[in-house]
Amino acid sequence: VSVNIGGKVINGETVQFYYGILVSAFSAVSMFFAVKLADKLGGMKNMVVLAQVMNAAFRVVAFFIGFDTLPKMIAVIAIISISSIPTNMVGIAQRALLCDSIDYTEWKTGKRTEGISNSMQNLTNKFVDALKLIFSGLVLSGLGYDANLGLEGQTQAFYKAQWPLFMLLPALGSVLYLIPFLCIRYSKAQRA
């Protein structure tokens, strides 16, 4: 879909710029309310769960709305922007949960473990990033993507897969992200 608004062409490539501005604005404002929202939800873990559920649900809804008209494109941008509010608070929640795990280890063993905890988190992040790159390469290869052909010379399979990949893979990622968080249980003594 391409739309000419005031002499500017808005299409799949340029809409990402406007989408980025909108999401960034929501993200910046949401950071000020992360702790208050977490308190209302019963903790940072619950905020992470809410964020991932919202991201998955809203992306599935946006996928079915589609993007073939300007109103649909605007609706999708609005839906994803709204779902980004709790999703962008996840960074704050992750840091708080990491600190909680360090405190838990001290409570359990009497020793602080910041160094090893941060090292393991960095190693895990690098491992996850490597897996993402491998998976992305496999998906692009499977779709017949050739970087030398540019955007105009790709296979039809590549073009048809863009929308499902953009909407549904992050939704799947959110569902998978939930698995470890749904296994976390705190006793009353641990909460104190």
From TrEMBL:
Positions of transmembrane segments: 17-35, 165-184
Keyword terms, alphabetized: Membrane, Transmembrane, Transmembrane helix
Keyword Translocase listed: no
Keyword Metal-binding on entry: no
Name listed for the protein in its UniProt record: Transporter, major facilitator family protein
Protein species of origin: human gut metagenome
